[in-house]
Amino acid sequence: DAKTTQPNSMESNEEEPVHLPCNHSTISGTDYIHWYRQLPSQGPEYVIHGLTSNVNNRMASLAIAEDRKSSTLILHRATLRDAAVYYCILREGSSGSARQLTFGSGTQLTVLP
Amino acid sequence: KAGVTQTPRYLIKTRGQQVTLSCSPISGHRSVSWYQQTPGQGLQFLFEYFSETQRNKGNFPGRFSGRQFSNSRSEMNVSTLELGDSALYLCASSVPSSGANVLTFGAGSRLTVL
Predict the structure, then answer these.
(1) Measured between CB atoms, which of B55, B58, B106 is closest to A97?
(2) Count of Cβ atoms closer than 10 Å to residue A85 Cβ
(3) What is the pLDDT of residue A54?
(4) Element (H, E) at B22
(5) So what's the pLDDT on residue B64?
């Protein structure tokens, strides 16, 4: 199984940028890099995904290393509502056979007022 | 557009009983996957279904089973419940043909085994 490695926890001050790293050295060519976050008492929600190029959406930016063995989720201005567990996972992009999905322990982001 | 619906949201069972959890995916999503979340083990993959066929299964005992119906709704069943089965069970749906296979999760079913 393709695995990801993330720091257990990170802190940020409100209104400041946050860079959440993820290592995925066993990524394969067809794997998309997905980020999800889980707020307390809720199911995970999609944040962003990418394949090779950096991606931006209204929630965040995703920076992908050239060798694709690592990526960084960037929250440009952290708010208290961004406090959550952030998961980086690899998701096979084809409609063919699926692999097990490994979420890992994620990064608990604490945002300080 | 309705999200992923899981029922029941909360339930309490006793050891030895069985439980069935239901998941209604987003309309048009044909893939459904299930996860168990516990404080100690985090989010663990149970199984994934596509077009009524199980495509992959996680490392769980045979007491955990699932199925998917022709309308893409899915159920999972846990037989002979053990205390360690107490967890939040999450379901997610996706459109496998979309390329990135983005997952949309439900709010989960919280099972307590006494």
Answers:
(1) B55
(2) 21
(3) 93
(4) strand B19-24
(5) 98
Would you say the C-alpha torsion A36, A50, B68, B24 has a positive or negative sign? positive
A66-81, pLDDT tens digit by residue? 999 999 999 999 999 9
Cα dihedral sign for A42, A44, A45, A48? Answer: positive
Verify whether the Cβ–Cβ distance B43 to A103 is below 8 Å: yes
Residue A15: pLDDT above 50? Answer: yes
Tokens coding B7? 């029922």
Q: Which residues of A touch B66 (CB under 8 A)?
A: none
Cis amide linkage into residue A7, ω under 30° from 0: no
Identify the residue whose tokens are 């069943």. Answer: B77
Alpha helices (H) in chain A, listed in sequence order: none
Q: What distance in Å separates the CA atoms of residue B98 and residue B28, rounded to the nearest whole number?
A: 11
